[in-house]
Give the backbone structure.
Amino acid sequence: MRMMRVVMSLCLMAAACLAADAAGKWKVVANAPDGNSYHVTLVLKDEGGKLSGVLESDRGQMPLANVSYANGELRFDLMLDMGAIPFRLKVDGDKLSGTLTAPDGSTGSVTGQREAAATSSIAGKWEISATDPDGTPRRATFDLKQDGERITGTVMTENGDALPIAGGKVNGSAFEFKVSIGEGDVVISGKVAGDTVSGEYKIPTGEAGKFTGKRAEAASLAGRWAVVARDAEGNQIRSTLELKVEGDRLSGTLTTESGDTAPLVDGKVQGDTFTFKIYVGDGNIEVKGRLENGKVTGEYVTPNGSKGTYTGTRG
């Protein structure tokens, strides 16, 4: 029995590694059987060893079905009104190539190149636990804003002092900034991994302490929200949002009053603001909002350009 558990654990680890091999953004050229070429972006996400994805184009996003990756082969189905279009692709490092098959059985070629990994998002509030060089425990809050690779914001101490940060920068998952105190600068450096940060800080004497932290907004945005929306004509529409947050990524589903569900795509969180899209067949509904005082509020734009507003409470 113990050996079986070991084998199962190894299989799960292998599946997670395989999914990670294909995850990322890919610039893809799909050559259709009719001779037209389509330039799209393939976005694949690793969710605990299971892949999900969308195709992005100028016309919006299209969710993919039956996404899998094994033995160097990536498979997924693009679901269109005319029927499913299977893609069968070989992944070789940061390149992919293969075929697509139209509903009538005709085939076309596909090539793609993986984009470089984006800089991690450190924007938002972080609850920090630190240990001074002499072993004294400390608590603080990082309230950070991010503009590309530049970080600004404040460090709120446990005494209530708000210290502005300077020289803030992020490179991939690594970040660094400093705050000024009476005796000089405290230099803070670390890494962000999803909803957690860790690192060290050096006080003006050169001694170093350690810190860890977790993202505050991420935990509070996740969950179920009862949403009431109003369209451009003032009609009231009720729905339920189920949200999941992983780092700066937002995913989940929207369920209408009639029980229809739609997945959220291209969801992002930055601080207390968020955006996502809902694919509705003729395009995307683009949604943006803000989490404030335990409520979500925002606006949305339908594929035809009509605008509406919404509010939501936990439910």
